């Protein structure tokens, strides 16, 4: 008699948190529906204040997505056509898309092989007279080396827009990501550490001037209804998403601690496994493990491990298989493409060929993590 297939383990289980939050979410949604103030209503305002308080920043401006957060943050930082913005090639394309949206040029530099984040020395070497800003990505929840990057920015008079899409709750010596640059851009995509039930984003700002610009930019360039000071955008966080995010925010430290529990269990169980390089906590900041991403021996080894996991009904993913400087969107040879300077970035390219991400979310049980470890070890 055939044994039943083992229960599948997904990359992320978005159903698992709802029972914990059901009462707060359902009550908040019901109240919001009764009040029918759906655009920039009281929940958005309350969320902005709560996030600002949690992150320790003066201002937080909610927007429609993480991509919009980056786009509007660059505009508020004064980045213009003809400028260059230094960033990482090992990130989701939204990081570079936002630079193109404002007419600037992404200048990709190589990454640190242990943290997968921007290498500060490479950043400084790439600065030109056209450089206006730096976008460090706190990739997979590991804070970038912000002390070094801030020192570089100060020496050269540059703005820093932190891409915090994967790092809500991470910090460097108690200073939260999103509180260390000129602005910080967050995503509330459902799978993020703090995720909604649809798209959403937020920008932190250290100055009232930047926050004022952001509030106008998200709302058709308007501070006062039907009076428009500039060409703006329609990028307002939905009131119902704000309800959900307000319900989740008080639990974010618990959720992140549980992610660290899973990550540390993986690392303990996989230490010494042949041909695997485990993710490093580089000591610069507190990792919140949006992803647990290790390196395989090579692309063939990765494919074999992914097949083995799939055979055991375990999900896995590759973030990211093609570094941004190798994406067709930046060839500049066809419609919708942008031309960028050619670059040889060997660390990013080698990382893209070898990286593999394992399931991770706060509710992942130790027994499931152990099952994944056993499969990877070939037990």
TrEMBL record:
GO terms for molecular function: transaminase activity. It is an enzyme of class 2 (transferase). It comes from the Bacteria. The keyword Lyase does not apply. Gene3D superfamilies: Aspartate Aminotransferase, domain 1 (3.90.1150.10), Type I PLP-dependent aspartate aminotransferase-like (Major domain) (3.40.640.10). The keyword Transferase applies. Keywords: Aminotransferase, Pyridoxal phosphate, Transferase. InterPro entries: DegT/StrS_aminotransferase (IPR000653), PyrdxlP-dep_Trfase (IPR015424), PyrdxlP-dep_Trfase_major (IPR015421), PyrdxlP-dep_Trfase_small (IPR015422). Its EC number is 2.6.1.-. It holds the Pfam family DegT_DnrJ_EryC1. Belongs to the DegT/DnrJ/EryC1 family. This is DegT/DnrJ/EryC1/StrS family aminotransferase. It comes from Spiribacter pallidus.
């Amino acid at each position: 008699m055939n044994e039943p297939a083992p229960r599948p383990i997904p990359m992320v289980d978005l159903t698992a948190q709802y029972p914990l939050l059901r009462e707060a979410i359902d009550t908040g949604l019901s109240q919001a529906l009764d009040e029918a103030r759906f655009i920039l209503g009281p929940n958005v305002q309350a969320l902005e204040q709560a996030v600002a308080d949690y992150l320790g920043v003066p201002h937080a401006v909610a927007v429609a997505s993480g991509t919009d957060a980056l786009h509007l943050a660059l505009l508020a930082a004064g980045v213009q056509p003809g400028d260059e913005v230094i960033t990482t090639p090992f990130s989701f394309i939204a990081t570079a898309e936002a630079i193109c949206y404002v007419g600037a040029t992404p200048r990709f530099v190589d990454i640190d092989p242990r943290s997968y984040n921007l290498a500060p020395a490479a950043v400084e070497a790439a600065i030109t007279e056209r450089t206006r800003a730096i976008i460090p990505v706190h990739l997979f929840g590991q804070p970038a080396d912000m002390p070094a990057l801030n020192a570089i920015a100060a020496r050269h008079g540059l703005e820093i827009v932190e891409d915090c899409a994967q790092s809500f709750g991470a910090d460097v010596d108690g200073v939260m990501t999103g509180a260390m640059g000129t602005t910080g851009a967050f995503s509330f995509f459902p799978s993020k550490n703090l995720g909604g039930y649809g798209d959403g984003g937020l920008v932190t700002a250290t100055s009232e001037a930047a926050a004022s610009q952001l509030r106008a930019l998200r709302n058709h360039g308007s501070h006062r209804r039907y009076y428009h000071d500039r060409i703006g955008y329609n990028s307002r966080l939905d009131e119902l998403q704000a309800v959900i995010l307000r319900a989740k925010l008080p639990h974010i430290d618990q959720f992140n601690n549980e992610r660290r529990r899973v990550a540390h269990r993986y690392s303990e169980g996989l230490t010494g496994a042949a041909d695997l390089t485990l993710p490093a906590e580089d000591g610069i900041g507190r990792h919140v493990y949006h992803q647990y991403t290790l390196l395989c021996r090579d692309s063939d080894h990765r494919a074999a491990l992914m097949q083995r996991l799939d055979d055991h009904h375990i999900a896995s993913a590759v973030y990211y298989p093609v570094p941004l400087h190798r994406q067709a969107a930046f060839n500049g040879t066809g419609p919708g493409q942008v031309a960028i300077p050619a670059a040889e970035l060997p660390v990013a390219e080698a990382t893209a060929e070898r990286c593999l991400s394992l399931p991770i979310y706060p509710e992942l049980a130790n027994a499931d993590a152990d099952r994944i470890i056993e499969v990877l070890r070939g037990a």
